[in-house]
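sorry to bug you again but im stuck and you know this stuff better than me. below you get a single protein, a line of residues and a line of whole numbers that encode the local backbone shape. mainly i need to know what kind of three dimensional shape the backbone takes. anything you notice is useful, everything is just below:

***
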Amino acid sequence: MNTIRFFALAGMAQLTFLFSAQAQQASVPTLNGFQLEDLALPLEEMFIGGPEREKIKALDAPAFLNAADNTLLSGKDFVIGIFFNGEARAYPARILNHHEVVNDRFGNVPVAVTYSPLSGAAIAYRAELNGEAQTLGVSGLVYNNNPLFFDQKTQSLWAQMLGQSVAGKASGHFMEQVPATWTTWDNWQTQHPNTVLLSHYTGADVDYTTNPYAEYETKRGINYPINKVNKLMPLKEKVVGVEVNGMFRAYPMFVLELENKPLIADTFNGMELLIRYDKETKTAMVTNLKGEVFPSVNSYWYSWYAFHSDTDVYMLNHKNGKPAGDIMVTTAAIQR
């Protein structure tokens, strides 16, 4: 082979590789600036949720106040409370309404505290991927009216309700849930007198006394389409959902109200659970028999069902469960 022909063939090979790489890159869909490789969700069911990526700013360097220094919250304000690695911390809904993610650390464990005003979902995760700490941001994308967050290292998208990466290099990976409690500031202080409180001195130009979702919380409808709907309850009925070894159960607040007990014992998929219902605040906490908080998700019914359509539902006299539609419940008398 002569020198000219060799370089000609080499140049053609390089061009072929370049065009192939460009074609492959062009075939990867993008949305709101994210390349959706290895997409685990239907692209047509993902929506830009109003703001551009990171227009809603996560809090990456949270500061905390002693409870006595609180000037923002009333006792009835809601917080996400976390007791982990021997530390108790409260994250006000007033702040999370404006930021949705707090990237925090408990000792050497990175924890992402997430809240979705659209779905009412309050969930915390160990923010790790293959043993490396991750920082989550707000992508501006939603799926089933629930936010998709992203990690700064791989730019992969994560579905809040699943704790799973659904697009990008991390697609298919999961984050471990950290037990968190949706409750009032008064209740959390009573349970954890030594708690600290996420400071509202965040450096952001935000009025945390305002709730941008006040109207949304009271209206019946939602903002973006969902792919599964079950009319057992209104879309925005509050539930607390649990997973035990791949099976799912929802505890509706109106059912816990009808039970009229501060403590309800339930056995689900071999796990003995205690559901502690607070009638005054209409909130519930799930624990094991030792009183340790069990990982759960507080959310609107529509969101729990959209992501866990094989769920069953705790109803009165639930041990005599019978099917209603495609959900195991106990009695049609209390459906609404």
Q: What stands out?
A: Confidence is low (pLDDT under 50) at residues 2-24, 319-336. The first strand starts at residue 30 and ends at 31. Residues 46-198 form one domain.
